[in-house]
Amino acid sequence: MSRFSYFPGCSLHGTGREYGESLQAVCQALAIELKEIEDWVCCGATPAHATDPEAAHLLGIWNLAHAAKMGDDPIVTGCASCFSRLRAVREELAERPDLVKGAPDLVGLPVKPEIQVLHIAQVLNQLETREKIKASVKVSLNGLPVACYYGCLLTRPPGAGAIDDAEDPHILEGLVRLAGAEPIDFPLRLDCCGASLTLPRPDLIYELTGKILSCAHDRGARAIIVSCPMCHSNLDFQQEDTARALGLDFRMPVLYLTQLIGLALGIPPKALGLQRHFVRVHLEDLLAARPAASGSVA
């Protein structure tokens, strides 16, 4: 059994609760042991590191120190922002021994700069886990055409510990194929969804997500696959407003990677949190009357 220290982050306990539920359900089905980090706090994502970098770094050090307290198991998270922030702080610790030495004074615990930080997609993509997924598929997705959407943060920054090539990633496409789906050729897979501009500039969210949704629809996708709670919020929660603003005559289900894999593994939809989506998600609807996709990716 593989073991990891689990950092859910704020979203997977709140607005992205269904992501956390599906992540844990899939890990349980694949005999991946997750132990939630005790006393974890916000990773210091966009609002913190944009306004107070020192506070953001301190939050990251706190989380890495509390993970180290539990042992040497790698940290796994599902949130693109948490993944990015924890990686950034880990790299800073590796470059600045003074921060490592001063960690007990800052957060009351020593920190290990060598502790590994992984995204759930990297865990699922490990050879042993890929074999488990292939052997555990119970529900055929019958080549369901999907658009794999990385967003602008998941693959960046490049370098040590990156999830995949920053400009031409394929990790999500490979994983959805294991589940029996077929990724379409999707040129907007690295575009920004608008992130937290949803509050001050919803018009920009409508414009950006409208392009993503329309591109996926026009290329034959029946669903969009994401691994970021913010992307999911903008594409799913805001989709009805986007459709009204832009006159879209379709609705596109948006699933987390772990939900798609969970469906293929035969995990009940409710255990994957699919009932919480704003755009209806039913497997029989996804597989019915599938439009022909204009092309798939290698």
Please characterize this protein's 3D structure.
The protein is globular, with a radius of gyration of 19 Å. It has 298 residues and is α/β, with parallel strands linked by helices. It is 46% helix and 10% strand. The longest helix has 17 residues, at 53-69. The protein folds into two domains: 2-120, Glutathione S-transferase Yfyf (Class Pi), Chain A, domain 2, CATH 1.20.1050.140; 139-287, Rossmann fold (3-Layer(aba) Sandwich). Strands 2-1-3-4 form a four-stranded parallel sheet. Strands 6-5-7-8 form a four-stranded parallel sheet, sandwiched between helices.
Which key terms come to mind for this protein?
Glutathione S-transferase Yfyf (Class Pi), Chain A, domain 2; disordered C terminus; 14 helices; 2 domains; Rossmann fold; four-stranded parallel β-sheet
> Uncertain regions: pLDDT < 50 for 5+ in a row?
291-296
Give the tally of structural domains: 2
What is the top-level CATH class of the largest domain? Answer: Alpha Beta
Report the average pLDDT across residues.
93
According to DSSP, the number of beta strands is 8
Percent in helix: 40-55%
Helices and strands in order, then pairings?
Layout: E1 2-6, H1 9-12, H2 17-29, E2 32-36, H3 46-51, H4 53-69, E3 75-77, H5 80-95, H6 97-107, E4 117-119, H7 120-124, H8 127-136, E5 145-148, H9 171-178, E6 182-183, H10 202-218, E7 223-226, H11 229-237, H12 239-246, E8 254-256, H13 257-264, H14 283-287
Parallel strand pairs: 1-2, 1-3, 3-4, 5-6, 5-7, 7-8
